[in-house]
Design brief:
By secondary structure, the chain is mainly alpha-helical. Helices cover 75% and strands 0% of the residues. It is built from twelve helices and no strands. α3 crosses α4 and α4 packs across α11. The relative contact order is 0.14. The model has no long low-confidence stretch (mean pLDDT 86).
Length: 263
């Protein structure tokens, strides 16, 4: 078999292993999935009228706020799901299985590829579930074309890949699973500092740069534009640049940490 064929075969084996682990130990995935669903329900049914009145500058309209909120919640779902990746990678590193893999005749990078592909698939499934809840409570995207839906799905998958590689690097750099979970916490906190819940223009002037110059805001605004027909502007290119930059950073960080000989 060629080197490429071996890499694909071994990566597929590692992918099945990670999906099997996720199926046997669903508690972490469920906990991370419940967070965005609870945030969605909380902001819609508790704060929805107040938030919509504040954003619109007029009467309360909860359905308008649902439309505004859902793209941000979907991106938050991706950030939360990747925390489980950091923990899983850290557990592999500390429990000795990676040392065992190093002695086997398998493609070296297949271990990381299995984690990344498995995490992206879990992100996609989580986004679908959260999206189904959003539709059930009133979210609609009637103006989006098929091409815009495909672009939105591609953006979500690309963003999930970027954050997954970063999470893998965090897991490799952490001494234990608890530290990995703590190190990956910014992936779920950053959406709170973005345009997920309120427009950037309504934020205090000193706070706006924090919301603007981070990956979640352009990604959320791009997704919002694709699904709702709002203005995307330069956010599309910024979101793409963030995704590609984070993917490259996470990939080289993860591979350099993983290929380093254990002490």
């Amino acid at each position: 078999m060629s080197t490429f064929a071996l890499a694909v075969r071994d990566s597929n084996t590692m992918l099945r292993r990670n999906l099997l682990h996720a199926r046997r130990y669903p508690s972490m995935t469920l906990n991370l999935l419940l967070t965005p669903i609870m945030m969605l329900l909380l902001f819609v049914y508790i704060f929805g009228d107040v938030m919509s009145a504040g954003i619109g500058g007029g009467g309360a309209n909860r359905s308008d706020y649902i439309a505004y909120l859902v793209p941000g919640i979907l991106m938050m779902t991706i950030g939360g799901t990747t925390i489980g990746t950091a923990v899983s990678v850290s557990m592999d590193m500390t429990e000795g299985i990676i040392a065992r893999f190093r002695t086997l005749a398998i493609h070296r990078g297949s271990v990381l590829v299995g984690h990344v592909v498995g995490s992206v698939l879990q992100c996609v499934m989580s986004v679908v579930l959260v999206g189904a809840v959003a539709v059930a409570i009133g979210f609609r995207s009637t103006d989006a074309t098929v091409l815009e839906w495909l672009a939105a799905f591609g953006l979500l998958a690309l963003f999930a890949t970027a954050l997954t590689w970063i999470a893998v690097g965090m897991g490799l750099a952490s001494p234990n699973a608890e530290a990995a979970s703590n190190n990956a916490t910014p992936l779920i906190l950053l959406p709170f500092l973005s345009s997920a819940f309120i427009p950037v223009g309504t934020m205090p002037g000193w706070f706006r740069p924090i919301a603007e110059y981070q990956p979640f805001t352009p990604a959320i605004e791009t997704l919002r534009g694709l699904l709702l027909g709002t203005e995307i502007g330069h956010n599309g290119w910024l979101a793409l640049a963030w995704c590609l930059g984070l993917t490259a950073l996470g990939y080289f960080w993860s591979t350099s940490k993983f290929n380093r000989d254990p002490k």
